[in-house]
Structures are given as structure tokens and as C-alpha cells.
Specification:
It is a single chain. With 195 residues, the protein is of the alpha+beta class. The chain has four helices and eight strands; from the N terminus they run ααββαββββββα. The protein has a six-stranded mixed sheet, with no helix packed on it. Strands 7-8 form a two-stranded antiparallel sheet. The longest helix has 19 residues.
Length: 195
């Protein structure tokens, strides 16, 4: 039994603080009870039930890291543009997944303020996180981490606007190792056969 990535799914890891995350034991108990009831009513033998939690494990294991390209303040709103977006993570644009980015790589004592983190694609739907709290001194060059981005992040990535897919880096005990290298423009142009 796999997880659904759509908005109606309740069996998912939390993407933002305060959101309820899936309890695998509770889900298994509920599914087993429904299965037993259905089999009893249909007079069928009870099959062996196996649960593959999928996203409940993979989602929290992955963190997307973006570099801030620009910060734009327009009246009461602040937009923080990053070097990724809907090309590497279309989930917010497709079905409203909500993330809570965090500033990493440097400490800030500046109080947080609400910002909208947008992608690099200049599309109305290219919003990674709307009205999230980031330090008021967030600036170009900063790094933002997006927790719980492991599920579907890379598998749904595309070459939208000829932006290559991001790398995948495994980190364990302070040692980083590239598992999938960043896709280059040369990788994408290899498919061109010419006129």
C-alpha cells in the first residue's frame, strides 16, 4: 500500500511545524480493521496485509537546499527568490504542499518577518512557501533549507525552462557524497538531433 501525494492524503509526513504527521501504527490498525470487516462481509479469507510506508520514511529524510538569489520588498510583502522552484519541486504549484524553509549556514539575530519564497521561473505559481517566517536580514547568497523534501522532490523534477535537475547528496556522520550529479545544459542538449 503506497502513499498518495495529492491534497486529500492524510497519510503523509509533516511539511511544516505543527502539522500532524502520519502514525504508521495507527494507519495499519485502521486499514486492518477495514480489511477484516470487508472480508467478513464478503465471506472471503483474510489476506496477509503488508504496509509500505514510502513517503513517511523518505520525505523527512530529504532536505532541499536553495541559494537566495534576490530579496524584493514591495510595501508590506517581501519576496525571497531562490535558485530552484517549480522545475525541481512542482508540488506547491500542483497541489498546494506547504513547506517551512529555514535559514542555514549563518546565525541571525534579526527578528523573523513573513516572506514568500519564490522560484526562479517568473511564473505566478512558482511559489515554494507563502507567508513563512524568515529572519528580516535574509539576503542574496544565503542558504535556505526546506525540510521534508525527500518524497517526490527529485522524481518530479523537470527540465523546465532548461534548468537542470538538482544533485542528490547523501550526508552521514559529517561526510557528504554525491549520489546523483547536477544535470547540465550539455546533458539536455545531447538529446537535440539538429535540423
Amino acid at each position: 500500500m503506497g502513499g498518495c501525494s495529492g491534497p486529500s492524503s492524510t497519510a503523509r509526513p509533516a511539511s511544516r511545524p505543527g502539522e500532524e504527521s502520519m502514525n504508521v501504527s495507527d494507519l495499519a490498525t485502521r486499514v486492518r480493521a477495514e480489511l477484516e470487516d470487508g472480508c467478513n462481509r464478503a465471506q472471503l479469507p483474510l489476506p496477509r496485509l503488508m504496509l509500505e510506508p514510502g513517503r513517511a520514511i523518505v520525505g523527512p529524510a530529504g532536505v532541499a537546499v536553495y541559494r537566495v538569489l534576490s530579496v524584493k520588498r514591495t510595501g508590506a510583502r517581501t519576496f525571497v527568490a531562490v535558485d530552484g522552484g517549480m522545475s525541481d519541486n512542482p508540488r506547491p504549484a500542483l497541489y498546494g504542499v506547504r513547506y517551512a524553509p529555514r535559514l542555514i549556514g549563518r546565525a541571525s539575530r534579526t527578528p523573523p518577518r513573513p516572506v514568500t519564497v519564490v522560484g526562479r521561473h517568473c511564473e505566478a505559481g512558482d511559489i515554494l512557501a507563502d507567508e513563512v517566517a524568515l529572519p528580516g536580514d535574509v539576503r542574496p547568497g544565503d542558504l535556505l533549507a526546506v525540510p521534508a523534501a525527500g518524497a517526490y522532490h527529485l522524481s518530479m523534477a523537470s527540465g523546465y525552462n532548461l534548468v537542470g535537475r538538482p544533485p542528490v547528496v547523501a550526508v552521514s556522520d559529517g561526510i557528504a557524497r554525491v549520489l546523483v550529479r547536477r544535470e547540465s545544459l550539455e546533458d539536455m542538449s545531447r538529446r537535440d538531433v539538429g535540423i
